[in-house]
Every structure is written in C-alpha cells, then in structure tokens.
Amino acid sequence: MKTNSIKLLALFFITSLTFTSCSSDDDGDDHDHEEELITTVIYTLTNNADNTDVVTLTFTDLDGEGGNEGVYTPALATLSANTTYSGVIQLLNATENPAEDITEEVENEAEEHEFFYTSSITDVNISKDDTDADGNPLGIETTVVTGMAGTGSLTVILKHEPTKPNDGTSAGAGGSTDAQVSYAIAVQ
Fold first, then answer.
1. Does position 10 have pLDDT exceeding 80, yes or no?
2. What is the per-residue burial (b if ≥16 Cβ within 10 Å, else e) of 41-57?
3. pLDDT, tens digit, for every residue of 15-36?
4. Measuring CA to CA, which residue among 129, 137, 122 is closest to residue 168?
5. Contact assessment for residue 64 and residue 75, using Cβ atoms and an 8 Å cutoff
C-alpha cells in the first residue's frame, strides 16, 4: 500500500510540472541537458529617464500545472505612456533554497534559447538588446517603448532550440516552449 502511494505521488509530481527548460537534445551529442523547473518569471522594467521608476512584473507557480493557479504580481502593472524602459528577464526555480537562477543556464546556452515578447497593445514595442555568440537575438535584456495609453497584455515566451535566425515570432521560430507568461499591463 505504501509503495502504491509513493508511486502515485511521484506520478502526480511529474505531471504537475508547468515549466521546464533545457530538455534533452536530439542531436546525438553526449552532453547531458538536465531539465530544470521554472517556477518564477520576473520581468523588471526601468524607466530610462527616471531610474527610480521601476516596474517589476512577476509570475509565480510553485506547485506547477494542475495545482493552484499561478500568481501574477501585480495583477495589473502600470507603465507610463511615451516612455522608454530597459528590461531584464529572470527565471528562477524557487523550490530550491536559495532559489536557483535558471537565467544563467539560458545565457550559457544562448545558441539554444530565445525569448519572444509581444503585446496586445499596438503602441507598445519590445526589442531584444542582447545576442548569442552567433549574433542572433537572445532577449534577456530588452528595450520597451510605450506610446499612447492602452490596456492589454505583455506576453513572454522562452523557446528552446528555436531556428536561428528566424522571423522574430515564437511561432515562426519553432523549437519547444520552456516558459510562457502573459502579464496584464496598462499604459497611462
């Protein structure tokens, strides 16, 4: 009876994981790419004109898919209209103590990763400021330019083994999705 309970708990845990990064490569190399759990995605935007104006968008889902819903903090983030922000994304596995910074692994394996950013607000433009060793966009560092007021979402997708170069869209890049979050934002 105890063995069945342990097996059931293990099965539940495995199926409840929401985000993983660095899945095994199929290219036949001998390097072991261990899967990492991503529980937290933090996107920090700093107003270039006023470094004290910092907007931090956070998504946390410690128990993974199938458990409690993930939490977005704040529920609605406010950005200033007609403003340029410098952005930095951070991925964490907060089930570890201290939390493991998965961003470092993404950066070390930059040729195998790319972030994609889109906004449903037409007057919000996001560009990637960093590249991998081959000169292709990575997207840990970004520039966000807001225009006129509006309310909508800002979606961040991390792709593993996308086609590089690509057309700049997550759909056109292929690969597998390691993480995807959509923050609610208002430009005022």
1. no
2. bbbebbbeeeeeeebeb
3. 333 444 444 444 433 334 456 7
4. 137
5. no
